[in-house]
Design a protein that fits this description.
- The complex is a heterodimer.
- By secondary structure, chain A is of the alpha/beta class.
- Chain A contains 8 helices and 12 strands.
- A 6-stranded mixed sheet of chain A has the order 6-7-8-3-9-10, sandwiched between helices.
- In chain A, a hairpin with a 2-residue loop joins strand 4 and strand 5.
- In chain A, helix 4 crosses helix 5.
- Chain B is an all-alpha fold.
- Classes of the chains: A alpha/beta, B mainly alpha.
- The interface between A and B is medium-sized, with 34 and 24 residues.
Chain lengths: 237, 322
């Protein structure tokens, strides 16, 4: 199977060491790591944002060289900040994720994320969790090949955590696209096929979710260890 | 709804422009009866440049105001509050009174350089996603510095009449400009507005935040460069001819975004039209004021604009952006 994403030697000064990464269509990949490890830098570099070194190729096309019209089909990036300044309606914010006006697609997403009661309200008057859903819908709008989501599950209540995961699974199920999402809650990684552990600006480990949870690198990077039902701080001998 | 409002806006701009040409109507009608050639001279050499300058300057302030607000993601950014206008005035004063180049092209170039310096300094000081308070404080500091340097330049000027000479111009005035001078403001203004339109998609995407816009493939360094350079070009060209006029660049985009359902980038065109209408209306007010003398137009825009600005500040304290 040819890879959907092919990143070679991508690096960001002082944040991300030269990194290689491949993924195939249909994959759900979680990106975990302690605070400041470089999760956001990895996602941003893959999105081509201020990429200094290396190349990102999605579906055979170089991301940095792609103009906005192409790039919106290749990838979308959901930033960790959910702040929106302008009083644009939720419906119009979702439409900003589309190249050409497509009211049907917007309605579909409003339905999918149960945004109907909020659709015509200005986004700067919504709660953080509601804005998260609007911005998530915006990220999905153009049906990009690669979804790069920075903490898509934070600020969401349990129903929306589960619903978001279900939507992501359905999105990648046809094998045409893939998801990379950074997470803070280690219990959420089981919903993903593959987990990247980022530490000190590099990918320290790349395993299945079960393998990652059992691995020693995880405990080292996070300085925690598994107990029967949860996690405890790892005591250094 | 949007179509109807746009048509109304174009109609209002046309009516304001025609009124500016025709009012006061009685005097031009009488003159036309007595001496048609003098009437046409008054029309072409006095009224036309004034109406053109009001429309063009207002449109430039509106368009660059909308672009600057979109770039800084802040409804309180505008050419005057960011120090751009003061920088342009400083540039023109230094060129005219210290370097003693008085050719219109030199004045325009001086004003554009001053405006670029002020906006560039603001970006360097406050950054492109500054808090409102940082942005306004940095703009205030730049305005104060430019104002002080303008006064210094006038004080050091070889000409003893520099202060007197420059005062009316500094207050902002559209009176007694020639058609040639109007063209000198018109050309950079048109270039500025038309090229700003190329930044509309990038500025609208910027409403989603810098990272989202960058991930959509917009090169924000380029967008920043163009917004700064083009705003400075348009505002500088107008300031060189008409002096500093405040608040239109703040107010017009706020009304314009009501027509674009909050989208900051595509508000550039309606903001240009609204800015043109506002300045034409302010100029008609100046002419109609029964004071027996001409008020500087900058005084009128400031007297109406400053309270509006305070109203916006109060609204923002309650966390509502316009």
């Amino acid at each position: 199977m040819t890879s959907l994403l092919e990143a070679r030697e991508i690096a960001v000064h002082a944040r991300l060491e030269p990194t290689n990464l491949q993924c195939v269509g249909g994959e759900m990949i979680a990106v975990i790591g302690p605070n400041g490890a470089g999760k956001t830098s990895l996602l941003r570099a893959l999105a081509g944002i201020e990429l200094e070194h290396g190349s990102v190729i999605i579906d055979g096309e170089a991301v940095v060289a792609a103009p906005p019209a192409r790039r919106m089909r290749l990838l979308s990036f959901l930033p960790a900040t959910r702040s929106l300044v302008w009083p644009i309606s939720a419906r119009d914010v979702i439409a900003l994720g589309l190249l050409l006006p497509d009211p049907k697609r917007v309605d579909e997403l409003i339905e999918l994320l149960e945004l109907k009661p909020l659709a015509d309200r200005p986004v700067n008057s919504l709660s953080t969790g509601e804005r998260s859903r609007v911005l998530f819908a915006r990220a999905l709008a153009a049906r990009p090949r690669l979804l790069l989501l920075d903490e898509p599950l934070s600020n969401l209540d349990p129903y929306w955590v589960l619903t978001t995961l279900r939507i992501l699974k359905a999105t990648v199920s046809d094998g045409g696209s893939a998801v990379l999402a950074s997470l803070h809650n280690l219990d959420q990684v089981t919903a993903f096929d593959r987990v990247l552990l980022v530490h000190d600006g590099r990918i320290l480990a790349d395993r299945s979710s079960a393998g990652m949870l059992a691995s020693d690198e995880l405990g080292q990077a996070f300085r925690v260890e598994r107990t029967g039902s949860g996690w405890k701080i790892r005591e250094t001998a | 709804m949007i179509v109807r409002t746009s048509l109304l806006l174009i109609l209002a701009t046309t009516v304001a422009f025609l009124l500016s040409l025709l009012l006061p109507f009685a005097s031009i009608a009488t003159l036309l009866g007595q001496d048609p050639s003098l009437a046409s001279a008054v029309f072409v050499e006095l009224r036309l440049p004034r109406a053109v300058l009001a429309l063009v300057y207002g449109a430039t302030l509106g368009a660059s105001g909308a672009a600057i607000q979109a770039l800084f993601a802040n409804p309180l950014a505008s050419p005057d509050l960011t120090g751009t206008t003061s920088g342009a005035a400083l540039g023109a004063v230094v060129t005219a009174y210290l370097l003693e180049f008085t050719a219109p092209l030199a004045l325009s170039a001086g004003a554009v350089v001053g405006a670029v310096a002020a906006l560039g300094l603001l970006l360097a000081l406050a950054g492109s996603k500054a808090e409102t308070s940082t942005l306004l404080l940095a703009g205030l500091a730049i305005s104060a510095l430019a104002g002080a340097l303008t006064t210094l330049a006038l004080a050091l000027a070889p000409s003893p009449f520099a202060f007197y000479d420059a005062y009316e111009w500094l207050m902002g005035s559209l009176v007694d400009r020639s058609l040639g001078q109007a063209v000198f403001a018109l050309v950079p203004a048109l270039v500025s507005i038309l090229l700003l339109l190329r930044q509309v998609p990038a500025l609208d995407s910027l409403a989603l935040g810098e990272e989202s816009a960058q991930a959509m493939g917009y090169d924000l360094r380029r967008t920043r460069f163009w917004v700064v350079a083009l705003s400075a070009l348009g505002v500088g060209g107008c300031v060189a001819i008409c002096g500093a006029i405040g608040f239109v660049g703040l107010v017009a985009p706020i009304f314009a975004r009501r027509l674009t359902r909050g989208h900051p980038g595509r508000a550039i065109v309606p903001a240009a039209l609204i800015g043109g209408v506002l300045l034409l209306a302010a100029d008609l007010t100046v002419r109609a004021a029964p004071l027996g003398r001409t008020l500087p137009i900058g005084v009128v825009t400031a007297m109406l604009g400053a309270p509006f600005f305070l109203f916006l500040v109060l609204r923002m304290r309650r966390g509502v952006a316009s």
